Structure formats: structure tokens, C-alpha cells
Amino acid sequence: MIARCLAGTLLGFPLAALVLALLLHLLPGHGEAFLIPALILFFPLWTALMAGAYLFRNGLRAWLVLGGANVTVFAVLWLLRLHG
Asked: What is the pTM of this model?
């Protein structure tokens, strides 16, 4: 139980930030007009990811899935910034 809690807390934070950064990057003008709504949306998204960590069967699976999601979203964001 504690492993899922830590996975949701420690990996949910950067995942929420990366998802919002990706959404802001994909919006026209890189989403400058949507910065404040994105910041307001951050905490509910992080909370949803923390709660969603309890849907996994065990802590290892939560760590692997959330860690893989972090790596994937970071790589997509990095490639988007690299190519324009």
C-alpha cells in the first residue's frame, strides 16, 4: 500500500507537470493565454494521479507504469521542443 502511495505522490507530481507542459506546448502560441488555467489544473491532476495509483494491483506495477508514463511524456516533450 505504501509503495502505491509513494508512486502516486513522487511520480504523479512530475507527470502532472509534464502533461500540462505538453498541452501548453501544443496549444497555439504555446499556450501563453492558458498558463494560469494550467496552473490551477495542476493540483487536481496530481491528486487524480495519486488516487489512480491505487488502481494498480501492486506497488511495483504502479511504479513501472507511472515511471514509464513520465519517461514517455518527457521524451515526447523533448522531441517537440527539439524539432520546433
From this structure: 0.90
